[in-house]
Amino acid sequence: MENNSRWACASGTVGPLGGPCVPACAAGQRSKQISWSPAFRGQCAGTRIEMDVSGVDAVKDRRLPWPSGSRWNLARNCTGMDGACPSNMSSVYQGHGAFKAVDGDIDDFASTVEGDAANRKWVQVDLEKSQYIDTVRVWARGGTARYDYERYVLTFLRSGCCNEDPATSAPANVKSWETSPLSTTLNDMFAYCNLNKDGTASADQQKFCGCSTRPTTCTLQSALVVPPGGLTGFQVRVGDDGLLDNNLICASGLHNARNFIDVKCRRHGRYVFVAAPESSTAYLTFAEVEVFGAAFNLARACVGGACPTAMSSVMDQAQAVASDKQGWPSTYGPPERGNDGIYDNMIATPATGPHWWRGRVCRAAVAFFESR
């Protein structure tokens, strides 16, 4: 389905939610192939959204995997590059700036430097205008491949070797660490150090260990090393003031080591802060912050509820009965069943083409569908 789906470029314009609209391609032409991803921000208000489902016989509404229904990420709905909202932070560790907290990529991260407890550590997202914020989702570095790799690197270094990027010199070795039992991995790291310390390592083993001189001490580790700092005791604040302490606290004393945590705020604000505890001297580091407003189904947010629909043609009853033998329901019908809010109702085109279903969204956003 993903490879057959394109968005029509309507009226020769395209742009972020709420505009501004800019010239794109000629009206009616296909402009951009996309996947079914909430990162896609859509076209301008009033744009007709058309789905080409060539070779697909049935289409059904889908709920997106976002908290509390379908909604978009407000932190990537601004006028900046690729929609990312302006961001700032108290300090920057080795180029891991605040922009990495709103870039849509959970495999990199933002990080402050370490410091004394007198200096608060925070990351700020500016939504550019005050709006309702239901949920703030904070992704921990523990949910990323890069974070997991860093744990292996730090453990390798603590074992006694010196290579800070072993995957570059021998990616197969690191892959073996990731797929082997932990005890096997820790013993392998220890063995590399001992071979180099004793002077019996091959040229490849010396390169992988990465020390310019022989290690003097090797230590067998009992667990993978956890990178310092992170999301320990952090808080989330929302408000209309650019200064951290002048905004209301949504929640504090939060902890998250892997994946993400959802923080309910349910208030209006322009600024979102993720901040370390006041007494913390460690890094504040995390992968991404997403901001969600109120959830609603755009396909049912038009005058009268359901938005206008059309389709190429409707499967007749005989074909519907035949399709039933494949385990599909026979409640096929006209195009309005594609957004009637009833999941057991479906639309279907006949076996012969063309195959398309079209819905007009009456607000500045896109609709998402999936094939069945």
Describe this structure in words.
This protein is of the alpha+beta class and about 375 residues long. The protein folds into three domains: about 140 residues, no CATH class; about 130 residues, Jelly Rolls; about 60 residues. Helix content is about 15%, strand content about 25%. The strands form six sheets. Strands 7, 9, 10, 11, 12 and 14 form a six-stranded antiparallel sheet that branches. A four-stranded mixed sheet has the order 16-17-6-19, with no helix packed on it. Strands 5-18-15 form a three-stranded antiparallel sheet, with no helix packed on it. A hairpin with a 7-residue loop joins β2 and β3. The protein starts with 5 loop residues before the first strand and ends with a strand.
Radius of gyration: 26 Å
Global mean pLDDT: 74
Say what oligomer this is: single chain
User: Helix coverage percent of residues?
Assistant: 10-25%
Structural class: alpha+beta
The overall number of domains is 3
Total strands: the figure is 19
Coarse morphology = flat
The rounded distance between the terminal residues' Cα atoms is 9 Å
Q: Could you describe the largest sheet, including whether it forms a barrel?
A: 6 strands, antiparallel
Poorly predicted runs are: 1-70, 362-372
Any key phrases for this structure?
single chain, alpha+beta, Jelly Rolls, 3 domains, 6-stranded antiparallel sheet, 19 strands, disordered N terminus, disordered C terminus
